[in-house]
Automatic annotation (TrEMBL):
SUPFAM superfamilies assigned to the protein according to its UniProt record, in alphabetical order: TNF-like
Stretches assigned to coiled coil: none
Domain of life: Eukaryota
Signal peptide feature range: 1-24
Domain C1q: 107-244
GO cellular component: collagen trimer; extracellular region
Organism: Chauna torquata
Comp. bias regions, Basic and acidic residues: 54-69
Protein location: Secreted
Protein name per UniProt: ADIPO protein
Annotated region described as Disordered, given as residue ranges: 26-98
């Protein structure tokens, strides 16, 4: 009896756990049912972010859009600072000669000059000395018949005279418009030939006359000229009055 009872006890012990496990599996609640028929556990933690996916293929270009309207012009910007001077460039090749220009109009040159000499040995006193030997009188501004120079171009003039003195003293003066401007006196030395001279700058207006004249008594007209001795009188324009011409 003991041997049979022990065998049965051992058999029950082996079968009971298996039946319990099967019963437990059959009695497991469905997780989809509310509360799963049992007390729910705490929510789990969010999972880690997955790895980014690979880049997709480039899409095709779309159609060209229409041209938009021009925008409003913006305000002018501030002037920039002056840049640094650049290096000098290489020297270029010589250019071709230009065309010859047209002939221009020449500037008018004002001329007035004379140079004359004496032919009479003893001119009369207190009247213009007539120098009738003409060295130069192209403009005919000197009149040999009167011994006077007539101004036709207003401006600044230079006059000079060089006189041979013989036989007696000489007193001469240069006149402008009936007024003596300068005087020259030479005292004659016997058995000799002297020289008397003078020069002056004068501003003349159109119509002014200039001449030489012996003044005083007849004993002071020793102005002389012959084949080897000359007494001369000259004058010329230095520059005209451009504001009048």
């Amino acid at each position: 009896m003991r041997g049979l009872a022990g065998f049965l006890l051992c058999f029950l012990l082996l079968v009971t756990p298996h039946c319990t496990e099967v019963a437990a599996q059959d009695a497991q609640p469905d997780p989809k049912t509310p509360c799963a028929n049992w007390m729910g556990g705490a929510p789990g933690y969010p999972g880690h972010n997955g790895l980014p996916g690979r880049d997709g293929k480039d899409g095709k270009d779309g159609l060209k859009g229409e041209k938009g309207e021009q925008g409003v012009q913006g305000p002018k910007g501030d002037q920039g600072e002056k840049g640094i001077l650049g290096a000098e460039g290489p020297r270029g090749f010589p250019g071709h000669p230009g065309l010859k220009g047209e002939k221009g109009e020449g500037a008018y040159v004002y001329r007035s000059a004379f140079s004359v000499g004496l032919t009479e040995r003893a001119p009369h006193p207190n009247v213009p000395i007539r120098f009738s030997k003409i060295f130069y009188n192209e403009q005919n501004h000197y009149d040999a018949s009167t011994g006077k120079f007539l101004c036709s171009i207003p401006g600044m003039y230079y006059f000079a005279y060089h006189l041979t003195v013989y036989l007696t003293d000489v007193k001469v003066s240069l006149y402008k418009k009936d007024k003596a401007v300068i005087f020259t006196y030479d005292q004659f030395q016997k058995n000799n030939v002297d020289q008397a001279s003078g020069s002056v700058l004068l501003h003349l207006s159109t119509g002014d006359e200039v001449w030489l004249q012996v003044y005083g008594e007849g004993d002071n007209n020793g102005v002389y000229a012959d084949n080897i001795n000359d007494s001369t009188f000259m004058g010329f324009l230095l520059y005209p009055d451009l504001d009048l011409h």
